[in-house]
Write a structure and sequence with these properties.
The chain is mainly alpha-helical and 99 residues long. It contains 3 helices and 2 strands; from the N terminus they run βαβαα. This is Aldehyde dehydrogenase family protein.
Amino acid sequence: LIIFPDADLDRAADIAVMANFFSSGQVCTNGTRVFIHRSQQARFEAKVLERVQRIRLGDPQDENTNFGPLVSFPHMESVLGYIESGKAQKARLLCGGER
């Protein structure tokens, strides 16, 4: 996803969240990269974080759930490992990160 300085940041945040969290983030076309002008980065991060914090985890058959389980326990361990690796490399974790 490429976001230019004159972009509608609300719409861009909606698209980024859908691209990354659709199907519990387990699709090969998952939108894991966002390129944004530095002047918009903080505002965009705040808008994405606001949306991500509203995601409801749970049973995928419950209509109130936005994010279901990962495909397997080993996959969950891999995802948690990626998070730990990022933290070890001084990445900023904005939300979640634990089971």
